[in-house]
Amino acid sequence: MLQKSAKELALIAIFTAVNCISTTLIQVYIPATKGYFNVGESTVYITAMLFGPKVGALAGALGPALADVATGYYIYAPATAVIKGLEGLVVGLLSRRAVRRRIPGYLYALAPSVLLLIIGIMYYTGSSELTIGIPKLNMTILVEIHYLAWIITAVVAAAALTYVARSPECLQWVISASAGGAIMVLGYFLYEQLVLGYYAIAEVPFNIAQVLVGILIAVPTVSTLSRRLPSSSRRFLLDSSAIK
Predict the structure, then answer these.
(1) Number of independent structural domains in the chain
(2) CB 3.0 to 4.6 Å from 200: which of 131, 159, 193, 221, for a disulfide?
């Protein structure tokens, strides 16, 4: 029990830092709600899928909330802690449940890529304010995003997800991340609309895109790690994910 508790605390500390860094690494400011798009969703999913609901919930709550504080988005930190914590909990729970495959796996793989393509072209084409949070390179730049970039991204993402869809766990991961992402989208919408009084619907497409990017990064990553880690590391992951 003591060994499991120590392992659990270590995982929470490590992946709190990972989630914080990934959330601050790339940020696209959204003027309508004074929020931002980021790629931190992917590591929240990866943490929960690999290590289970408890580590996923706590590291998911603490890391992104610390990122909000560190980058000046203080008003979002309390909501982020609750929303991302619930997201990590749900993804961790659902990713361990068996799901019936009623639809061919490649359709689950293609759907996020197609939806990302549509949202990207509709809302992310043109000029965007991009913040890169790499140490010693912290800068904000104005970037011009062409629609061809979204076509290339969607094709690459579809190919990667179709490849990993051969694994029976892929459907579980996509569905669990989608459920967790729905909590995130709804949670921020309610917080911005009811608490902050912002025009919250403006951020919904951006948050949906954030979920899709998270799925497209997390599912291939978890699939690769689960297949290629050495047996000793695989046992460590299995033991860690069983912590209750």
Answers:
(1) 1
(2) 193
